[in-house]
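An instance follows:
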Amino acid sequence: MAFATAKDGTQIYFKDWGSGPPVVFSHGWPLIADAWDPQLKLMADNGFRVVAHDRRGGGRSGQPWQGNDLDTYAEDLASVIEALDLRDVILVGHSTGGGEVTRYVGRHGASRVTKAVLLGAIPPLMLKTEANPEGLPIDVFDEIRKGVLTDRSQFYKDLSAPFYGANREGSTVSQGTRDEFWLWSMTVGIKGAHDCIKAFSETDLTEDLKKFDIPTLIIHGDDDQIVPIVASANKSSKLVQDVTFKVYPGAPHGLSMVPEFADRFNADLLAFARG
């Protein structure tokens, strides 16, 4: 297996497939790099080099006590990019991974990046505040923390329903996909999973978005029950300079793995990368 060494010595696992222009994927919480496998194969089959890492705290990466915050996640992403000396990268981030990508650009600029894709992403801020009344109240995130600490196995099984829209009439998501979500989530250590809730809910990425000076594709489902579009993509799309904003009617948070939406996302991703 391949690893990059983070600044604090944590080993960050990554997969590196194919050859061609590099596309680097950052996954959502509480998942691992394997959640991107369909897109990794698609892009590698179409002439791209694809890289996806397991965020610290889960999967095959190290599980340190410290560093479960977006600043460190962004530096871990930088460690992978620099270890492979990738240039002209297309960054793709889903959910918390979209926050990771955003903070990376905010801290490192676009010297190694040529485009970005934010899918169901958390920026600019998920938490409800006086300045962000469209956000979710802190009680929502306290309940997530409680679920992780009390019975994370059952919590993840239950969470897979709104994540993929399985609780909506006519949903086409399979039980296998929901089982896969549980399997990946259970590889994430409880410390990293718990700390990441604060990271994805309370980190304000507004100023990072304002630093984007690269073509950016923002995709969000208007039935996202995890990261509601009103406090995320609707706002992010107004902060990024060169943006293409696509709303998928009826799509859930994990739309890239739901049959009725995955084909559209894959086509949009490939077209944007080629454009």
About this structure: The first strand starts at residue 2 and ends at 5. The mean pLDDT is 98. The chain is about 40% helix and 15% strand. Residues 119 and 219 are 5 Å apart (CA to CA).
